[in-house]
Design a protein that fits this description.
By secondary structure, this protein is mainly α. It is 82% helix and 0% strand. Keywords: Membrane, Transmembrane, Transmembrane helix.
Amino acid sequence: MNDKQKQSNYSLLLRYLGLGFQLLISLALALYAGKWLDEKWNLKTPLLIWILPLLILAATFYKVVKDTSKKK
């Protein structure tokens, strides 16, 4: 493996490591916001604490598929 391939692999690793941290922070914020909104709006069922993280996951999976698909 030459230096160019090592640098490419390292760059790819850092890219997905950053995406993982972004996902974790986004999920934590979505959970906090969902809980806060559920309490503020006095919802009897915890609706937003489920919906907001699911939206974050859907958006993240879409981004991963878009980034990893082969471009024409």
